[in-house]
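Continuing the batch. This is chain 6 of the set; chains 1 through 5 are on the previous pages. Same settings as before, nothing changed between runs. Recording input and output for traceability.
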Amino acid sequence: MRSLLFVPGDRPERFPKALVAGAEAIIIDLEDSVTPATRPQARLNAAACLRDADRSLPLWVRINPVQTADALPDLAAITAARPDGIVLPKARTGADLHQLDHWLEALEVQHGLAQGSIKVIALITETAQAMLSASTFMQPPARVVGYTWGAEDLAADVGASANRQADGEFEDTFRLARTQCLLAAAAAGIGAYDTTDTEFRDTAAVERRAQAARRDGFVGKLAIHPAQLAPIHSAFAPTAAEIAWARKVLELMSGASGAVALDGRMIDRPHVQQAERILAALERR
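Output for chain 6:
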């Protein structure tokens, strides 16, 4: 999934537009974009969308954190409707992922769903506790397929008055969170998804940051507006030069016993892995 588009669970009139916006997955939000007063109806809206949509693309739901009283009611309201995945916010340690896994195991049994069929992507940088517990995220349950990160809640937790510099780039604490997410995902053998951009009119900035995310190793990016999808997809698509390089690397290394030269540089096993990732991304387009 190169793009995952958020839509507020209490705005069902936006669901049809989100479903055809071109995202590679939709996340119906029951957390930050929904007020406590509208959350019960938002759960019903999410379940109805899961039941009624043609499911031509993955439909995910962001629930509330496991430490809140809303998490289990969120899951109870939507599991029977077979969400493709759950986005877990504010994971404090790996124990929160295992708690969610236990709940989902029980609910899958209750509703006759295959064990592990509901996948999970977790936000693992939204609190100072999570930032200092990075090693606990290295061995997640098997249903966890990705990590992502957030800057807004982390700013609130540490008392920062802002998380970006004047040019729109993140301050050091939040760049650390981004890096920590990427490394934790790599250690766990799962995908890393870059956080949202608050801009939706400045598509050039969205594409520039998405290009940086792909260059650094992220596999996709969260979006909050349909206008962000095209620049995200463009940024995460391999260029013609990258594709040509990847094919040449695999060709040269197919019969090589060690490093070989390509365009004046030595290439070896790590370059093969890079080439394979590029061509895998091409197949997903």
